[in-house]
Amino acid sequence: MGSNLSFPEVEIPPDRTYIVTGGNSGIGYYTAKEIARMGGHVIIACRNMSKAETAIQQMQEEYEKEFKEKQAKLQETERTEPKKLNVEKMELDLASFEKTMKFIEEFKARNCPLHCLICNAGILVKSKEMTEDGYEMSLQANYLSHLLIILHFLPILQKSGDDCRIVQTSSLSYRFGKLDMNNINYEQSFGTTSAYSNSKLYQIISMYWLTRHVKDKSVTTTSVHPGFVKTQMTQTNTFGRVFSAFTRNGYAGATTTIKAAIDPSYKGETGVYFSNCKIEPTTSYPKNVERQDELMTYSFQVLDKYLPHDIKQYIDM
């Protein structure tokens, strides 16, 4: 894993709740498993409930196996029994605003606190595909729907404690992205790599905008580059194969996300970008205020009918 890819072992209170989108596979799977192992209450938000249930069972089995291997090295009087990981599933389809809203409303109906929202799910499409809402698939699933969740859950995060966080899984590929307002929905041209890179760029741009405009600064917003991780997504396209020699496994890829989500030393750190388990500067491109305002004006127009009615109470618009 490398000495620079690590997160602190902390004891997470069982009432501290984490949502991990796309928590049934890849980076999200290991993020959810490790946070639950440390004691946290984890909700994996996924499109396929059958795969989510299988993932939860696998997490428990892997945890118990690893636990017993560690216990075998202890004296018999020091040994304990493994716990049941507190992981549950909720249905979320980011390719549909209505289905994303269904997830949002179902979580709100729980009247449950939320301490960390990890926007991890992401797709890289092989060809141009439009959602039922009329937006390019990676634009909506990677960026717009996650932004919608953030905007609805901000008040819950703000009420849940003094160390609540939003962590977005971005990518170093944001450096290859560009905000072209004349082609943001790929009306003129489309490229697999550019669409993915753009969606990751938009996440970082929105992070900087939210840092400036959210009224209550108690909730931190960060972005994470997990490294080039070997997942089903990255192995089925040219972009992933180009970087195959540099790929990490899912666990190594999750370390930076986990660190940003749970490390006590990063309490209060907001508007920052993590790579290799440490804060690194982004390029100046997403920091441009006019560019931020352009993207967010467009985003709010797209999401208008789904926005919280009281959004102006907690965001300067």
TrEMBL record:
Protein name: Uncharacterized protein
Family from the record: Belongs to the short-chain dehydrogenases/reductases (SDR) family.
UniProt entry keywords in alphabetical sequence: Coiled coil, Oxidoreductase
Organism: Patella caerulea
Gene Ontology MF, one: oxidoreductase activity
Record's keyword annotation contains GTP-binding: no
Cross-referenced Pfam families: adh_short
InterPro entries recorded: NAD(P)-bd_dom_sf, SDR_fam
Coiled coil: 49-80
